[in-house]
Amino acid sequence: MPILTAAGLAARAHQSQLTKPPGSLGRLEDLAVWFADRSGTERPPRLVPAIAVFAADHGVAVEGVSAFPMAVTGQMVANFVTGGAAISVLAREHGASLQVVDVGVAHPVPVPEGAAARLISRPVRPGSRNLLHEAAMSEAECAAAWQAGAEVAQALIAADHTLLIGGEMGIANTTAAAALVCALADADPAAIVGRGTGIDDARHAHKRAVVEAALRRVGGAASAMDWLREVGGLEIAALAGFYSAAAQAGVPVLLDGFITTAAALVAVRHQPEIGHWLLASHRSAEQGHRHALAALGLTPLLELDLRLGEASGAALALPLVQAALTLHRDMATFAQAGVAGAAA
Predict the structure, then answer these.
(1) Which long-range contacts (CB under 8 A, 24 or more apart) does 135-139 make?
(2) Per-residue pLDDT tens for 220-259?
(3) What domains does the chain contain, in order, with CATH numbers?
(4) What is the pTM of this model?
């Protein structure tokens, strides 16, 4: 990986002096240098992570592209906030703050008092429109969702969080993400459209046909923002804004799965400098994720056949990232330990 700062070069030199054969910690060494390069600090301190899960519904769900009904989006938002979802458990386990952001849930579910996570209500509209037949969002709606995500990132950074993780929830959002990756990575829907929540062969073929028809509807020569508005989703736009604001503030982002990577692809196509701040946590079982990561030039840290979303894969990678930085900070050098270095 290219090293751009004096801190990154110093971190690479420091790695060569630690009591281990050169390169023996593999990609953990690269991770430590990556964070040093971006933090401007030779030995970055322990990260203070924050997770924001953005939720919205999708009009294309009426086309039968998901195994679950649209009402599940609101029900899962309540589950996140009350602490019962996978990401809720993982956030607690790894000491990460968790907030859930409603940017367009069509059927909100009341959340009881004493919730485990903060719910931020920023609904732009009750779900996107059906991308098969019309633009998923107006220009103003897309901009409002983007701004909502950016403001969440700015607030977390102002609260001294040093690593941001975005998650998502939205029935049918793998359909929108697949359309975006096809458009922005110039990829064949047959290679990108996956099974999402676990649809059968017939529904999978139908989902691919929906994506193909949506791409034909829009046509070519569209910008990344045009594609986002036409075939994206409110939570995807919010995630892209979240990543943009993090990059502008110089705060690293740990990406999650297919939908969050599609959002990152939109952001990077719109503002290429954002890519410098992105780290891929894992490669999911969703078949298009590999192509989306390749389009961003990212190599994932883990491959566990996950396909849950919610930021769960990023949360699982968090201890690995923290361990890389702890080793970098706390291991003795050859000189400190009185250990002979490698022979010249």
Answers:
(1) 135/229, 135/230, 136/58, 136/59, 136/60, 136/176, 136/229, 136/230, 136/231, 136/232, 136/233, 137/228, 137/229, 137/232, 137/233, 137/234, 137/237, 138/229, 139/229
(2) 878 999 999 999 999 999 999 999 999 999 999 999 999 9
(3) 7-44+331-337 (no CATH), 49-325 (3.40.50.10210)
(4) 0.97
Provide the 3-class DSSP secondary structure of residue 165. Answer: strand
Rounded Cα distance between 288 and 163, Å, is: 26
Q: Catalytic positions, please?
A: 310
- CA distances (Å), origin 95, targets 70, 91, 118, 293: 31, 6, 15, 27
User: What are the backbone dihedrals phi and psi of residue 64, each rounded to the nearest 5 degrees, phi first?
Assistant: 75, 40
**Pick from 226, 294, 219: nearest CA to 258:** 294
What whole-number distance in Å separates Cα of residue 48 and Cα of residue 165? Answer: 11
Two tokens, residue 223 = 């910008």
Closest CA to 225 of 254, 268, 186: 268
